[in-house]
Amino acid sequence: MQENLVIVESPAKAKTIEKFLGKGYVVKSSFGHIRDLSKKELGIDIKNDFAPNYEISPDKKKTVAELEKLAKSAKTVWLASDEDREGEAIAWHLSQVLGLRDENTKRIVFHEITKNAILHAIKNPRGIDINRVNAQQARRILDRLVGFELSPVLWKKIRPSLSAGRVQSVAVRLIVEREREIMAFESTAYYRVVADFIAVDADGKKSVFKAELNKRFATEQEAVALLEKCKTARFTVGSVERKPAKKSPAAPFTTSTLQQEAGRKLGMSVSQTMSVAQRLYEAGYITYMRTDSVNLSGQAIAAAKEEIVGLFGEQYSEVRNYKTKTKGAQEAHEAIRPSYMNKREIDATPAEKRLYDLIWKRTLASQMASARIERTVADILVEGAEERFVATGEVVQFDGFLRLYSESTEDDVQEGESALLPPLSKGDELSAKAVTASQRFTQSPPRYSEASLVKRLEELGIGRPSTYAPTISTIITRGYVVKENRDGNKREYVQLKLEKGAIDRKMLTENVGKEKNKLSPTDIGMIVTDYLDEQFSDVMDYNFTAVVEKEFDEIAEGAKSWVDMIRGFYSKFHTTVDKALESQPVRSSQAHLLGTDPKSGKPVYVKIGRFGPVAQIGGDDGEKPRYASLKKGQLIASITLEEALDLFSLPRTVGQFEDKEVVIGIGKFGPYVRHDGKFVSLAKTDDPYTIELDRAVALIEEKRTKDAKTKVPIRTYPEEEGLQVLNGRYGPYIAFGGKNYRIPKGYTPEELTLEECREIIAKSKK
User: Fold this and answer.
1) What's the rounded Cα separation, in Å, for the pair 472 and 454?
2) CA dihedral (472, 476, 481, 487) positive or negative
3) Which position among 153, 323, 379, 662 has the lowest Cβ density within 10 Å, counted as fewest Cβ atoms?
4) What is the pTM for the complete model shown?
5) Is residue 81 in some structural domain?
């Protein structure tokens, strides 16, 4: 009989733990959840106090059978799933399915996969916390009820194959509302004035520094008037104020802050961050990565101090105890940190190394001294003007934690920069090397990135950090949201520059609106959100979702019955569903009139077509309408008549090549160039609406060169007539006897011998 069976969630975790426990212990993985709510119908008995109907997943039956066999022969079964609610539920399901007895079943938890932590857990087992299990059950049942009853409403009222979810739908609402803010935003111009001043010290040494006017002008005329005053004005230092300041380090990572910072600093998606962090945890490199806590254990703090003193000196160390602000913060009780503070490097993949380095730096920085800074603000008076220039400077007197780590923000770019100022005193006279007034424009609110969406969800108390990754993945997969890049647009602006007594006016251009990996709603995402918001305002309310999370916390603490919680929600929700089913359907395919086509006099519409949003000309008079797909980034809610008409400019003739027309169009397989009855695909970077003749000809010639290469054999063999090595669509291949043979890896097509060709053919025939 086997003495001990330890069951964990993942094989990687099992492998790491097995190394620490040694003989006498068998460590096996359940591969996550072994059962879930039945997929047949609802899987919940509403009339019987919402009793869940659980079933073992078909792909887990073999695993369950193996665990059952091992459990029966073991003296003690140790359930070692994670300590959060989901991990507690996994342990409970295992005990139920495997028929484990209380007397020989022990529940153990640990926040780091180290030998000491594992052995300590073995010495301090506990029972399954049924309150945490119930909290997880309540979440799963509530989400199933919402999804199961809302989704059919969407099928009937909007279109088939749509779905909704308690957290997902609210996340989409945030993105939709932000998009509408951007649509409604009207940018206004203003003029920002910056001067390059020259200061001369007692030794005659000159220093140049920048200062910005304390006022921004609405018109060019006002900016010119100021520059005219500056032509002859005296500039003097009105006041100089120096203030000491401190910058303190951020707390160690929680799940949410790790997701945000990894997105900003490393460019990782939320799901990628969690996947990499999971692997780091299972390998024993970091503590548990699903936590709301910013607390560090006394042992971790002491280890961090030792490392900081060793690396930078005693003056850089400052013991800090952080307190978690959120009530009912995640059960892991400790922030995400390295398992061993002195482990600077790890043997892992590049992504794992980058994320580990971020966690290591953030943890150590949280225990480092504050940075001491001296900020200087100088007012510079302009003779004959009410306005004044303000110069700001910053000197780091002691770098503290900044020596190791600095927290990033969503938008690190700022117009004004703090720089080192030369020594200035009240009354000092300055000269202006140049004064520049640049036209600027107010900016719309930014679209959400994954990092900023996570931050907003956490601020509103929606969901849990552990759910953010699947939430974002789900809304993208469902087609409600897209993550995309925008190239931006060219914009002209005015620059007025006073230099050497003359004002020079220039028209310059800049690229605006460039975005990378930002979240935007699709048309169907906006339609579904509007419908849900109208019919199910309670469920879509941000506060409701946050209140539900608090109720889950109360259930986990044993202060509330999960059945009472579900019952209180469902009675009202089900009534709302019935009312929605009685309402008139929202036709997503219903056309929205934009105006009239000036060429044909027919109406122009936009609507959701079979394959996505389209523009439509005509159709009211019984004639077949013309259709054109909307471009990437265009929305039915914001497209203009002019933009819609531009979509019908294809196919268009861009000129002639070899006395034949060159036509650009969009077909079944995407944008193309048509010439002499042949088609050439456009590159991803080519815009079919703007591509010109020279680029089209270049694509045609590239295709000809490629085709020519495919027709010329790479190798022929006089000894074997008809055997050739050719270039194909998917790479080089061997042709012989009317059949084609793939060339395996390891062979160079240009160097293939006859014997090697025969060998490849013979093996392929087997």
Assistant:
1) 9
2) positive
3) 323
4) 0.80
5) yes
